[in-house]
Structure formats: C-alpha cells, structure tokens
Specification:
single chain; mainly beta; Tick-borne Encephalitis virus Glycoprotein, domain 1; elongated
Length: 133
Amino acid sequence: MKLLFLSLILTLAFGSLVQTNAQTAQTIKVLVGKQKKASHSKITVKFASLIEDSRCPDDANCIQAGNARIKVTVSKPGSNPITFEANTNLGAKGNVYEGYAIYLTSLTPVPKLNVRLNRNAYTATFSVSRLSR
C-alpha cells in the first residue's frame, strides 16, 4: 500500500515536468497562392492551393457541414520544406514541422447559396506555435 501511494505521489510530482505543451500560438492569415512568415519564428507558411470546398453554404440547412481541403507548404531556412493537406472539418487540420505546430483554424469566404466564389479570393488562417518539452 505504501509503495502504491509513493508511486502515485512520484507520478504526480514528476509527470508535469515531462509534459509536452505548446507555447502561445501566433495567428497568421495567408491568401491563396501567397506565403507569410510567422514573426516569432523563421517558419514560412504558404497557402499553395484550394483543393476542394464542399462546405455547407452559410445560408443553407445541410445534413453535414462538409469540408474544405487546401494544400500547404511550410519551410524554414536551412531545412527541406514539406507540403501537406489541411482540412476545415474532416481529416488532418495541420502538421508539425521543425518543432512547430501549424494548424488551419479557418478558411474564408464561406460558401453561400447561388453565389460563385472566386477561387483566388480565399484566405486561410493558421495557428503557428512552438512545441516545447
């Protein structure tokens, strides 16, 4: 019983020291086809392209929310860039690169009924945060 109690105390005391967490995230907005550097890092995020947008129009009643999928390229000087897909609802929303977590938090504009959206007017909002131990 004493051993179990001691193990529990040690786990609680030292478990928080090994915990991995993210520091305060920076929010950046990037137009399709453009790139932007996160100011607190050397990470550059490029919104390479819109792959699909099947989200439910803002002024409609849908059974499912739908999904938008974009292609993202992330780079840092002296490192090989990576390209990945990020989704608004279904699937992966981001990736980890060179100790940073990069996640898609929103994509605008939101579709509307009977309105054709300009594929060159999309803006992706990303959260970029440094991972630490």
